[in-house]
Amino acid sequence: MNVQNWIFLFVIVISYIAVVAGSGQCDRSFKGKQSVEVDSDSDSDSDASESSIEDCSNKIYEIVQPSKFNDQIAEDPTACQDDKMLQCDPDSLFRTINGSCNNLKHPTWGMSTDCFLRFQPAFYTGYDGFRESTAGGPLPEPRDLTQKIFKNDERPSRNLTFMFTIYGQMVAHDLSRIQFLPVAHREQKNMVTGMLDSSTVYGPTEEKAATMRKYDGTGWRNTSFRREIFMA
Q1: Name one GO molecular function term (predicted).
Q2: Whole domain around residue 136: which residue ranges?
Q3: What is the pLDDT of residues 176-189, one digit of tens each?
C-alpha cells in the first residue's frame, strides 16, 4: 500500500470511530431518559423514545456531515476550490485527457486536479501542523491503527490469484492520487482523473500526455518519459 491508500484508510477509520462515539453518547442519553421517565404512561414513553432516537440521529448526522468543514477551519489562500468555468462540446466523440466534460451537467466532476470530498472536516494544529490529541500529544500512527483493527491473517482463495491484488492496486492508482506538496494545503487535490480511464498510463493532463508521443507521424510512443510522473 502506498501513502494515499493509508491516508484513505485512516480517514475511514476515524469516521467510523466518530460515528461509534456519537452513537455511544446517544445510547447513554436514551437510557437516561428511559430511567427518568419510567413512571410515565405508555404514550409519553413512546413520545420520549421517538424524541431520543431523533436526537441521536441528528447528533450522528452532525458528526459525519461533510458540508460543515468550511465553517470549522481557518481561511486558507491555497485551499482547493471548485470554481472552474468550462466550455464543453456535447458532440465530442472522445473523452478528454484530464477527465473534464465527461459529465455535461457537472463538467468538473472527476477531472484531474479537482478537489477531494471529505467525509469528515479537516482538523489541523495551526495552519499546517498535524492534529494533536486532546491531551496535546501526537495521535496514533495510521499504521498502528490498521494493524490493530485489521488482522493480517492468511486466507487462501481458490477463486482469486495474486493478479487480483495487482488489478486492485492499478484501479486505486487510476482513481486517486493525492497531491503531496505543498504541505500547507488543507484541502487535497486529486492529481489523476476520478474515472477508470487509464490516466496513470496515458497521463492525467494534456501536457503529461504529450510527453508520451513522438509526434513524428508514426504514432509511436516516446519511451523516455519519467515513470514517476504518472505512478504514485
Answers
A1: peroxidase activity
A2: 66-225
A3: 887 665 555 566 77
